[in-house]
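Lay summary. Proteins are chains of building blocks that fold into shapes, and those shapes determine what they do. In this project we predict the shape from the chain. Here is one chain we studied, written as its sequence of building blocks.
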Amino acid sequence: MSKQDQLGFDVLLQDAAADNAARIFARETAHLPDTWEDALVFHRNQINEHHAAMLATDFDGALAIRNDAHLLATKLNGGKPGILAGDDAPGCRLDTLARAPNGEVPLWGQSGYFEIEAAGMTARIDMGGMFGIGATAMPFLGFAARAALRDKPFLSETGYRSFLGVTVTPERGMDTAGFVRRVIEVYVDTELRGKLVQIDPKWSK
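And here is the predicted shape, written in a compact code that computers can read:
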């Protein structure tokens, strides 16, 4: 076989592999909508189902729904990666359009921003949803906490603390607010030995 023939054969193999991958993806996503109007309705239903699964401590079911949500975003992206590449990327758009109103405690799987009192302080919580970091690999979703009162003791001297990959003892009926409160209480008790820290003045503004 000549070098030119080999190159042609390699191209045919690549085309066959691409076609096969496309067929597999089509089968995997056949149950998912391909228009934004239908996709948003579908994703909101995913959030409701995911919330119910988390309340029941059905983490396998919850992770399956999150993976399905990522497949939905990939389908909306024409089967290509990059679903979280920017604000207009499908994963980011789905997250934003289904986000809980500010101040309202989000459902499990919904991103949102709310305040909570825990461990003797008030924190502003930015809760991650199904498209948050590590959402398809970890049972509990991540969140970030910021000090609501910068002149009061907090979790860190910067007034900010991110919680990713954290876990607590599963408890049926525990919503996102209950989870956040429990994580903060455990962190203060174990990592800070029960004492909050004063925010450094250089971070207080």
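What the prediction tells us: The CA atoms of residues 32 and 38 lie 9 Å apart.
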